Amino acid sequence: MKNNNNSQLNFNFFYPEEKLAVFIDGANLYAAAKSLNFDIDYKRLLTWISAQSRLVRAFYYTALMEDQEYSPIRPLIDWLDYNGYTMVTKPAKEFTDHSGRRKVKGNMDIELAIDMMELADHTDHIMLFSGDGDFRRLLESVQRKGVRVTVVSTIRTQPPMVADELRRQADHFIDLSDLMEFIERANSGAAASPEGGDPSVSKIRA
User: Fold this and answer.
1) Residues 6+ apart with CB under 8 A from 132
2) Domain 19-198, CATH 3.90.78.10 — does that match?
3) CA gap 35, 165 in Å, rounded
4) What is the pLDDT of residues 98-123, one digit of tens each?
5) How far is CA 168 from CA 20, 151, 177, in A?
6) What is the 3 state secondary structure string of the chain?
7) First vs last Cα of the chain: how many Å apart?
8) CA distance linking residue 126 with residue 58, whole number of Å
9) Is residue 139 a contact partner of residue 146, using CB atoms and an 8 Å limit?
10) Of 91, 92, 94, 62, which is closest to residue 78 (Cα–Cα)?
11) How far apart are CA 205 and CA 90, in angstroms?
């Protein structure tokens, strides 16, 4: 039975013995957290996720500007790679639109979809950190394999960061704001993680 009640804070739809896989759309998650005015501590996030179920894999997807001498998101990517996340990256492409404006494109939807379909046969529950409505059909496909899907995004911004069709398709929906107490990065920064995200990431979308 679906439960899309974003106000549910006890998260009782997680089962300790089930195998859980996590898929993070980096640009989308950063944009949602920025809209809610907080930074994510990815060490705390992984700790919280691991406490819910048996974590199989946590994927993080982002595109990179390969021609830059220094990418501001590189410290975050390196930290995630060494601290429990499976990084999936590809070069972003810069182009000029019909108005002559330079834009950056680095859509990771195909990479995420392939990985999720491959892992669906080995998991009981999937968490998708994204509000992108393009993933609705993907969720439907893995659900037919018997996998439950939880979507994490937010409806508490104007406009909401999650597509209505994606939220409806999910078995469960968690508003990102309800996770703040568990995953927010302390202002002191400390050594929990080098970055809460990077503004350049939010631009790398189709």
Assistant:
1) 25, 28, 109, 163, 166
2) no
3) 20
4) 676 655 555 899 999 999 999 999 99
5) 21, 10, 19
6) CCECCCCCCCCCCCCCCCEEEEEEEHHHHHHHHHHCCCCECHHHHHHHHHHHCEEEEEEEEEEECCCCCCCCCHHHHHHHHHCCCEEEEEECEEEECCCCCEEEECCCHHHHHHHHHHHHHHCCEEEEECCCHHHHHHHHHHHCCCCEEEEEECCCCCCCCCCHHHHHHCCEEEEHHHHHHHHECCCCCCCCCCCCCCHHHHCCCC
7) 33
8) 10
9) no
10) 62
11) 12
Question: What does the CA dihedral 98, 92, 86, 8 come to, rounded to 10 degrees?
Answer: -20
Residues 6+ apart with CB under 8 A from 184: 38, 39, 40, 41, 44
Residue with tokens 């680095």: 106
Report the percentage of the chain scoring pLDDT > 90.
69
pLDDT tens-digit series, residues 7-45 = 346 789 999 999 999 999 999 999 999 999 999 999 999
Please state, in angstroms and rounded to a whole number, the distance separating the CA atoms of residues 120 and 139: 10
Whose tokens are 């089962």? That residue is 15
pTM of the complete model: 0.83
